[in-house]
């Protein structure tokens, strides 16, 4: 089965990624812009935002994380629209505290906190034609996970064959520092919520249905999300 990490046709990738493809040196940026086979369609909320985080505050929140196994550099917050900075917002929902709600139409991920509030994170989401909606749950989670390209991708992009047995975790790995794997009825859906190191991707549809948060945001969400946590993906 094809996963979220496939490389899209050369005519659709950006110039930097195309140069990387021609060089034969696949990178994390290149793999993130992929095409995947759609799975069956998988059905909350509205919010009023709080005051915006200042640039100086954002620089602290999204600063370097040197204590990680692979030290994470600071985010260039000038490349992120301030509306996508992490913040606590009013969010009315009947979902239980701890539930993750993905709003792909607005490029947000919410963690329900209760008392009518939620932690909101800016996200990248599936591009047109590769979005899905419905209920799932976190079936497993991993730090600095190994990424393995599918056979279909290797067939089309032979340079990925070097990772046929798995690409070790690291800053160039498409899954990043943290990964939440989404399941339905005991089966992996092929979709994840993962850590992105590309600030310019936040607020856009660039994946094949997976959802990416900035690494610092993903570490925060991951630390508060146990296995079996409910995930609701809203229609776009």
TrEMBL record:
First-tier enzyme category under EC: transferase
Q: In which pathway does it act?
A: Cell wall biogenesis; peptidoglycan biosynthesis
Q: Which UniProt keywords apply?
A: Acyltransferase, Cell shape, Cell wall biogenesis/degradation, Glycosyltransferase, Hydrolase, Peptidoglycan synthesis, Transferase
EC numbers on record? 2.3.2.-
Q: Does the keyword Cytoplasm apply?
A: no
Which InterPro entries would you find in this protein's record? Answer: LD-transpeptidase, LD_TPept_cat_dom, TAT_signal, Transpep_catalytic_dom
Question: GO molecular function terms here?
Answer: acyltransferase activity
Entry keyword annotation includes Transferase: yes
**UniProt domain L,D-TPase catalytic: residue ranges:** 98-234
Alphabetical list of Gene3D superfamilies matching this protein: L,D-transpeptidase catalytic domain-like
Q: Which Pfam families match?
A: YkuD
Similarity remark: Belongs to the YkuD family.
Please identify the protein, giving its name as recorded. L,D-transpeptidase
| Protein species of origin | Camelimonas fluminis
High-level lineage = Bacteria, Pseudomonadati, Pseudomonadota, Alphaproteobacteria, Hyphomicrobiales
